[in-house]
Amino acid sequence: MIQTIQRPSPNFDARTRAIDLVVLHYTGMQNAEVALARLTDPAPIAGKYPGPWQRTDIDPNTPLARVSAHYVVDEAGAIYALVPETERAWHAGVSSWEGEGDVNARAIGIEIVNGGHDFGLPDFPDTQIDAVIALLKDIFTRWPQLDAARVVGHSDVAPGRKRDPGEKFPWQRLADAGVAEAR
Ligand SMILES: [Zn+2]
Fold first, then answer.
1. How many whole angstroms from 117 Cα to the centroid of ligand 1?
2. Is the pLDDT of residue 53 over 70?
3. Which of 50, 64, 116, 140 lies 20 to 30 Å from 29, alpha-carbon distance?
4. Contacts (Cβ under 8 Å, ≥6 apart) of 148
5. What's the CATH code, domain 5-176?
6. What is the pLDDT of residues 135-154, one digit of tens each?
């Protein structure tokens, strides 16, 4: 088992089908703390999570969707565990894979801290990617049905709607480590 930091999120429910996919995301927020706050917030409102995507005249009390992921990996390679793998976390939104919706029901979701397109599309530090690779290897040991061919990006399951983990994400490094397919 790799080392994780427990940061439980109340945002999950029961899986309705077996795990057979891992979905990688970037957080697309200012920093790790803001992302962890949002991913563990049971009643998020717009005013707590401002960003360039937000219209200036939006009511700060507007409720936002409750979201979560199983893991968050920060820039220094720390791995936060938010939702047990056996439960359904809420990260993929409207999405489909192999002709079926409800990707969350079958996926383990990993949020990788990175500002993304809204915050300058920064590089992913090597230390962070090393941690993502270690986490994927760890997950594969628990779920033998998962392998490199079952690791996809959010943009793969929600094309046209989502761009993460984005064009800066080093898929080749993951492929070289045997935890994703080259693309
Ligand atoms: Zn995403």
1. 12
2. no
3. 140
4. 174, 175, 178, 179, 180, 181
5. 3.40.80.10
6. 999 999 999 999 999 999 99
Average pLDDT, the chain: 96
Could you give the percent of the chain with pLDDT greater than 90? 91
Q: How close is the Cα of 41 to the center of ligand 1, in Å?
A: 17
Q: Does the annotation count 111 as an active-site position?
A: yes
Q: What distance in angstroms lies between residue 27's CA and the mean position of ligand 1's atoms?
A: 7
Q: How many residues does the chain have?
A: 183
Query: Could you tell me the residue ranges of all domains in the chain?
Result: 5-176
Q: Using omega within 30 degrees of 0 as the cis cutoff, is the peptide bond preceding 50 cis?
A: no
The active-site residue, picked from 33, 98, 111, 181, is 111
CA of 157 to the centre of ligand 1 (A): 10
